[in-house]
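Write out the bound-state structure for zinc ion.
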Amino acid sequence: MSRFLPVLFLIGLFFFMWLFLYAHQRREKQKRALPLREDYLVAHGHDEPACFACGKDQLKDEGLTSGRDTRRIVSCEGCNTLLYRYERPAEVVDDE
Ligand SMILES: [Zn+2]
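---
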């Protein structure tokens, strides 16, 4: 039995890696399917953006693919729910 342990360990490891990647892919897909800011506000009847799941108004603003991406994804600081997306005008970068 003990000689199968390394194999079982590897199978377990691959299974967890697969689960992790699956969850990550799912969240990436959800981000791209989020409503736009205006649609989100109308759909939930808010004047100011707030989380529809827990009601907090502290929100996280992240780039879709990187920190400087102009496609912004907004999620809740408190419960991590994905809320909406919006397009930010490209930053003017000073090279000096
Ligand atoms: Zn929340």
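---
The helical segments are 5-32, 37-44.
The first strand starts at residue 59 and ends at 63.
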